[in-house]
């Protein structure tokens, strides 16, 4: 697949017909029948695409191991939407708090369909463009490391794979993205799959 330009990606994110072909996703351990989007807590994540000369990459974080929820897991910068905030404002605020990203820097280009989690959150992924060099300072209370997944991997149809294991008395399937150091799965992996589906069409 030929590399996508900024204009290509922005056009796909702004195309209602393309977005309509995607659907809201749910966390793999959740029973869709028990999820009520209207009662879910609003949250947002920033999906930052950094445009290096050598090729763009998607910024991800490794959550601190001492966190009470999802410790040590890979995530996008993000969190709960506060009263009076838009998803975009929440994503920028959380990215500033977690990795020290200046909220004036990302050029926001659109949102992906919401992701419903088994813990009752409705996450809106906000896609933004960034140009290096960037000075990022992770908050050690929340973020253990910052790294990138090359966009070329996201665009590779063979990259994500499904894994199965028994959890809470039933077999569970979930997406996993390849990385030589970190396990990318769960909500983050599902959001990346939706991004990949949109960009590959």
Automatic annotation (TrEMBL):
<keyword id="KW-0460">Magnesium</keyword>
<keyword id="KW-0464">Manganese</keyword>
<keyword id="KW-0479">Metal-binding</keyword>
<feature type="domain" description="Nudix hydrolase">
    <location>
        <begin position="36"/>
        <end position="171"/>
    </location>
</feature>
<dbReference type="InterPro" id="IPR045121">
    <property type="entry name" value="CoAse"/>
</dbReference>
<keyword id="KW-0378">Hydrolase</keyword>
<dbReference type="InterPro" id="IPR020084">
    <property type="entry name" value="NUDIX_hydrolase_CS"/>
</dbReference>
<protein>
    <submittedName>
        <fullName>CoA pyrophosphatase</fullName>
    </submittedName>
</protein>
<dbReference type="InterPro" id="IPR015797">
    <property type="entry name" value="NUDIX_hydrolase-like_dom_sf"/>
</dbReference>
<comment type="similarity">
    <text>Belongs to the Nudix hydrolase family.</text>
</comment>
<dbReference type="InterPro" id="IPR000086">
    <property type="entry name" value="NUDIX_hydrolase_dom"/>
</dbReference>
<dbReference type="InterPro" id="IPR020476">
    <property type="entry name" value="Nudix_hydrolase"/>
</dbReference>
<dbReference type="Pfam" id="PF00293">
    <property type="entry name" value="NUDIX"/>
</dbReference>
């Amino acid at each position: 697949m030929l590399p996508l330009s900024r204009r290509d990606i922005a056009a796909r994110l702004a195309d209602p017909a393309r977005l309509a072909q995607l659907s809201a996703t749910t966390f793999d351990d959740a029973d869709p029948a028990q999820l009520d989007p209207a009662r879910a807590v609003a949250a947002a994540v920033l999906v930052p695409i950094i445009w290096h000369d050598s090729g763009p990459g998607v910024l991800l974080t490794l959550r601190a191991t001492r966190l009470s929820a999802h410790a040590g897991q890979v995530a996008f910068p993000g969190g709960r939407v506060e009263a009076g905030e838009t998803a975009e404002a929440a994503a920028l605020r959380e990215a500033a708090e977690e990795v020290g990203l200046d909220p004036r820097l990302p050029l926001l280009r659109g949102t992906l369909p919401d992701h419903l989690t088994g813990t009752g959150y409705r996450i809106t992924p906000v896609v933004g463009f960034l140009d290096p060099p960037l000075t990022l300072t992770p908050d050690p209370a929340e973020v253990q490391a910052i790294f990138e997944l090359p966009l070329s991997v996201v665009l590779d149809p063979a990259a994500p794979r499904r894994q199965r294991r028994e959890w809470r008395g039933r077999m569970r399937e979930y997406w996993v993205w390849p990385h030589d150091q970190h396990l990318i799965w769960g909500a983050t992996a599902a959001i990346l799959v939706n991004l990949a589906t949109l960009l590959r069409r």
